[in-house]
Design brief:
With 230 residues, the protein is mostly helical. The protein is 46% helix and 10% strand.
C-alpha cells in the first residue's frame, strides 16, 4: 500500500508564504485522502504493488477516471512538497541557463509562470517542464499531470487548487504565485530534475508501496529515486 510521505520540512517552515494551518490542512487532509482512495481503487483495478507512476499511466490508458484522479493527485502533491523549501535560492547553473534561453531572463520566466497560473481557469497545476525544445511553462487541469504527456519532464509544479492557498491569500492567486516563486520555490530540486531529464542522475519518484511508516522508501531516499521509463 502507498503511504503518505512526510513533509520534508516542518509545517510552519514555509511561513509567511504558506501558513502551518494551510500545510496541515493540505497535507494531512487533502493529500492523505488521495492516497487512501488510491490504495482502495488500485487494489480493485489489480494494480497492487505497482509504482504509483505506473498506476497513474495505467489508469489513464484504461480510462479509469476515478483511479486516475486520485492516483495522479497523490503523485502531484508528493512532487509539490519537494518543489518547496524554506531556504529558496535563485536558479543557478544549467537551470539558470535553460531559463534564460527559454524566457529571456529569470524575471521573464517568473512572469510567464505567474501569468499561466493566474489565467488558468479552475483547479489544476502550473509546471516548469523540460522538453525537446527546451524549458516551457504549462498548466494542467484538475489531476492531469506530466506523467502522461510524452516528451515532458517536470522540474517544478505549483498547486492551483484553492485549498493550496485560500486560507492565506483568499482569492488572490496571483499574489500566491508571486510569493511562491520568490520565497519557497525549490530551484535546487528543479536543477536536479533538469539533470535527470538529460540522463544525469535520478529524478523524482513516489515512495514505493510498502514504504516505511514515515513515508520514506526502504530502498531509496524520498524524492530522489529513479523515475521509471514512460
Amino acid at each position: 500500500m502507498f503511504t503518505l510521505p512526510k513533509l520534508p520540512y516542518d509545517y510552519s517552515a514555509l511561513e509567511p508564504t504558506l501558513s502551518a494551518d494551510t500545510m496541515h490542512t493540505h497535507h494531512d487532509k487533502h493529500h492523505k485522502t488521495y492516497v487512501e482512495k488510491t490504495n482502495e481503487l488500485a487494489g480493485k483495478a489489480g494494480l497492487d504493488g505497482r509504482p504509483l507512476e505506473e498506476v497513474v499511466r495505467e489508469a489513464s490508458k484504461s480510462s479509469d477516471k476515478k483511479l486516475f484522479h486520485n492516483a495522479a493527485q497523490a503523485w502531484n502533491h508528493a512532487f509539490f512538497w519537494v518543489c518547496m523549501t524554506p531556504k529558496s535560492a535563485a536558479p543557478s547553473g544549467a537551470l539558470k541557463a535553460g531559463i534564460e534561453k527559454a524566457f529571456g531572463s529569470i524575471d521573464g520566466f517568473k512572469d510567464a509562470f505567474v501569468e499561466e497560473g493566474f489565467d488558468h481557469f479552475g483547479s489544476g497545476w502550473v509546471w516548469l517542464a523540460a522538453g525537446s525544445e527546451g524549458l516551457k511553462v504549462i498548466s494542467t487541469h484538475d489531476a492531469d499531470d506530466t506523467l502522461i504527456k510524452d516528451g515532458l519532464f517536470p522540474l517544478l509544479v505549483c498547486d492551483l487548487w484553492e485549498h493550496a492557498y485560500y486560507l492565506d491569500y483568499k482569492n488572490d492567486r496571483k499574489a500566491f504565485l508571486k510569493a511562491w516563486l520568490d520565497k519557497v520555490a525549490n530551484y535546487a530540486f528543479a536543477e536536479k530534475q533538469l539533470a535527470a531529464s538529460d540522463g544525469q542522475g535520478d529524478g523524482f519518484r513516489y515512495p514505493s508501496p510498502g514504504a516505511n511508516d514515515d513515508g520514506s522508501d526502504r530502498r531509496e531516499v524520498p524524492g530522489e529515486a529513479p523515475r521509471p521509463p514512460a
